[in-house]
Amino acid sequence: MDQLNSIIGANIKHFRKAVKMSTTTLAELSNTSQSTISKIENGSSTSIEILIQICDALKISLNDILPAGLLPDQPDHSGKRQLLGLLDELTDAEIKTIQLLLSVNILPVIKQITPLLTALDELDEKSRNNLHTLFYSILNNR
To answer: Which residues fall within 8 angstroms of residue 66, CB to CB, at 6 or more apart?
Structure first.
């Protein structure tokens, strides 16, 4: 049973991190506490009701967090289900932006931006803060 709880906890953590969600946010969305989420992710047992609430918050099914082979073979649609759940939360404007990006060849633009992103990533914290301040000043002085 401990191994089952460990696998369930690891799977929950995997799906939570896949959507860049904190344990605090998951706790709020699943109507539990942050400590409960942390305990579950570390292999503690919990009720099926809490697991269902967590799965609902992550936009996955209970089957997605169970160990492979525990239930009869079913196709793995966990990533697809989670993506569709995230898409449901987008606004119409966000969906149109994504559609536009998918309809345009953005590869040349990405190739031009990549050196800039690399250079920004190599900045020290002070330089990054100065650049942030500059951009904030430009945007607010229009």
So the answer is: 7, 8, 11
- Of 63, 60, 38, 36, which Cα lies nearest the Cα of 50? 36
* Alpha-carbon span 73 to 141, nearest angstrom: 59
Residue with tokens 């047992």: 45
- Exposed/middle/buried for residue 28 (C-beta within 10 Å: 0-12, 13-18, 19+): middle
What confidence score (pLDDT) does residue 74 get?
59
Sign of the Cα pseudo-torsion (62, 68, 70, 74, in order): positive
Which pLDDT belongs to residue 123? 86
Q: How far apart are the first and last CA of the chain?
A: 61
Residue segments in the chain with a per-residue pLDDT below the cut of 70? 1, 70-78, 142
**Crossing angle of helices 78-88/2-18, nearest 10°?**
40
**What one-character DSSP code corresponds to residue 91?**
-
Triad 103, 81, 38: Cα angle to 5°: 120
Which pTM value belongs to this model?
0.55
Q: Whose structure tokens read 């503690």? A: 44
pLDDT at 84: 79
